[in-house]
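> @MW can you paste both from yesterday?
MW: sure, first one:
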Amino acid sequence: MSLFRSIRESPAPDVAVEIAANRVSAATLEWRGGRPVVAGYSIDPLPDGTLVPSLTALNTNNRATVAGTLARALERLGRPRRIGLVIPDAVAKVSLVRFEKVPPRAQDLDQLIRWQVRKSAPFPIEEAQVTYVPGLASADGHEFVVALSRRSVIEEYEALCADAGAHAGVVDISTFNVINAVLAGSESPSADWLLVNVAADSASIAILRDEHVIFFRNRAAEAEGTLIDLVHQSAMYYEDRLKGAGFTHIFLGGAGTGAVEQVRRELEARLGTSVSTIDPRAAAALTDRIAAAPALLDTLAPLVGLMLRDSRPSTVNS
């Protein structure tokens, strides 16, 4: 899954960077004996308020600080000129739209999707970057997972990379690449499964049927109500409206927030089933010199997912 592939059509990179509200992280991938291995990484905190993810407004309050932090991270990884970039979920509005009939021409489908999402766009559709992937097909229609973002915001993140001396050949949001990391693992889940991905500024809930997203919601950290309540409500919606028969797996990603274990226990208590934390080592091994601390595994997950997005059959059509 890569909703922003159409911004810069290119293969998966060997170096991935995530610019988040609280940090800049980066990792590099090598292939050894036909297996992917995380060969190096870098994690640097950002001062509070330096970057505030937003769908509609300027995200960077101190461009020099973010670009400088990114440049130092890339320096540790050998100064790569081409990278993949992971950006916060809050930068995009994700929707699922369904059509009884899909136009045969790609241009007509693009116009139909843009018309459908313009009604909920918080800015003129002419200012939007709209991308989509095919979702679940059924007898009563075909679903598409659509991401809408302000083009100037995406360009803002690309410019940060350029300031640091790198070109962002691929741009995508965090949770979709955590999904990629899970699907690229040695035992990717089947049937229906749930992912809760917690970041410093927000949390996202995704429900998948095999490899297809059938539900997605992003919640700002300061929103009313608890994350656990929202997950429970989403699970009820899944059972009532999406013909859910139960989750085969529940995954939790903490994005290095430090609250993963507490959230995991609360989710298990509310949902009455076990919750697994994300472990990207199922998709890519770590070199012997990298210690697999839980916070590091959380941070590596979206980076590994972006770098391995082409290691399995692609569902992208944008």
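MW: second:
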Amino acid sequence: MRRFSWQPYLYIAPAGLLLITFSFYPLIYAVWMSMHSGWGKPAQRFVGISNYSELLTGAEFWNSLGVSVWYVIGTVPIALALSFFIANLLFQKLRGLGLYRTIYFLPYVTSTVAAAMVWRWIFSPGTAGAANTFLDWFGIPAQRWYYQSAGVFALVGEHFGISLPEWAAGPSLALVSVMIFSIWHALGFDVVIFLAGLSAVPREIYEAAEIDGAGSSRKMWHVTLPLISPTLMFLAIVSVIRSFQTFNQIYVLTREQSMGSTQNLTMLIFNQFYGVFNYGTATATAVLLFLIMLGLTVLQLRIVGPRVHY
């Protein structure tokens, strides 16, 4: 009979204590808060799932969820495709390769708030901003950018004299402005992770493919992409979670000007918590956001996981 040993548990005790203190306990406490009305006030009372019912039957939660979904759709695929393309370029034997890699990684280590303030000037309305100056070179009228709450598809349709219904208006131009910033800001992290994945592919496999007559496109589709699929899945999961949790750039760029068209779920939590001090609704929204991200992560692992080559 094997003797029970406490030694392994003593080794993991510090990490376990940190997880319990800063992860599990706040989650359980948030769930408990979400089941109360008037938290922290004399009129505090237990209401069960009433906060969740109000959220799921109200329009504000679904509008914010729609903004979050548009944000994920508009940032994750483009950021992954662009970073993979850049990583492939940086993976070649180029002079000054280390400098290029550093330049691409700099935006990610730059403070989000500081970088967003610079992009406020880039997207300044009128002719003062760099973005409108660039559009003026092509004869395109100046845009209101992060002040514009109208959908981009509706704006394009209006330019061509086409009136689109509200459901087809698309994300607001203000939200698209935040998407552009977010793609730029997260690009460095994705590029570095892709470079690590590309470096792990054995050169012998490429040589064998060349001997078999495979060209560049065949090597890309049948060698590179299958062998970096674990990296791609990791980045896809992390990017979706990161996009749903986006807060800083929306707060700095468009909090007051976009008439609520950029209020995603994290901004809804902030406005409920610090704006109207409705702690129960705020924590209920946070719990629902956690469940959404957990469900999407499990779904990605179920669908993409079996197709990953290790």
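> thanks! The chain has 14 helices and two strands.
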